[in-house]
Amino acid sequence: MSEPSSSTNAPEKKKPIVIITIGMAGAGKSTFVQRINSYLHSQNPPVPPYILNLDPAVTHVPFEPNIDIRDTVNYHEVMKQYNLGPNGGILTALNLFTTKFDEVLDLVEKRSADVDYIILDTPGQIEIFTWSASGAIITDAVASSLPAVVAYIIDTPRTTSPATFMSNMLYACSILYKTKLPFILVFNKTDVQPHEFAVEWMQDFEAFQAALATHKGTTDDEGEPTYMNSLMNSMSLVLDEFYKQLKVYLPLSNLLASANAYSNTMQAVGVSSVTGAGIKEFFEAVDASRAEYERDYLPELKRAREAREKTLQAAKEDSMNRLMKDLAVDREQNPEAAAADKWEQEDEDGGDDDDLDVNIIDRSEEPWPGQYIDITRARPHEEEHMSWPRPG
Ligand SMILES: Nc1nc2c(ncn2[C@@H]2O[C@H](COP(=O)(O)OP(=O)(O)OP(=O)(O)O)[C@@H](O)[C@H]2O)c(=O)[nH]1
């Protein structure tokens, strides 16, 4: 771990790596973020991370984030003003915040010389982050300026049934393919349920098939496989490809950590956010992800940018050509109207009305301002004792 550097141009200082924690509601994301935060503080010397909370609806986070979406957007007011339900409120709050994400990135980049890890805690309503435009914008923006890794938090005790396990893995697989970022499967709550069963299912196709066969509801009254069973069999074949990219961190004594398991890309780690077990291994996986980001993600990003530039340029040229052609035809057919054609410059120079007056606060730099004018920025007062039910 590198020491915090005081000089801004220290050549050996690596860029910090961004850990994007994603997971189903209740999987333990916030507890996990708090655990890795305290682990980093307990290092010698301490390596305090820079933490961003992106969950506008969370009532309590067990850590002090440096940037908190709740300081910028008041989720309750957003729901009230836009007449939205809980999920719509979270999505709109996230959209509003995303309009100012460049400011967040500026703050993060300003601190990047002093921190080794930047941690993002995302909303528990996983699909809001993973499948919304704002979630994608945030992930892409972060990953295009700094090395990034997705930590997909799994509630291990609630994944012991083959069907639940498979749906969780399909979700993980879809996020991996969507973000294309280095990926760590974090099997959380191993103090309650060790995750070896999951590793075995991922590494041994036959073992998963056997678990499926003995699972309740896999055959109908006549002993024939149910539709669900056939579907799961087919899906497990698909997932087998996904698992092939797996690298597993397990105690050396465990025979499952066979040499061929150490291959590439995706990694799996068992942790307990309560006891702290496995956190060291998690950081080993994070450090390995940095190399992968540089090897795989960055060149791909460059290629995609170049391709996008080319497509944009071609589209611009095409639409300009068509416009010129249309104008020429128009002038020929209607010379009087063409002569009267005027362009009002003032319309173009109008004010910047759409720009929301929303400011991002870095709590570690600025004192708590405590005064908000825009209601979308108002933070609920502690004394209101408002206890809103968590959505979802
Ligand atoms: N036993 C055990 N419980 C855990 C662990 N991690 C989290 N929990 C518990 O799981 C519950 C959910 O944890 P949170 O950290 O709030 O989960 P979350 O994913 O942030 O939840 P949302 O905010 O709803 O998305 C809490 O009761 C935690 O105490 C763990 O490693 N072991």
From TrEMBL:
Domain of life where this protein originates:
Eukaryota
Q: What is this protein called?
A: Uncharacterized protein
The protein's organism comes out as: Phlebia brevispora
Taxonomy, top ranks, is:
Eukaryota, Fungi, Dikarya, Basidiomycota, Agaricomycotina
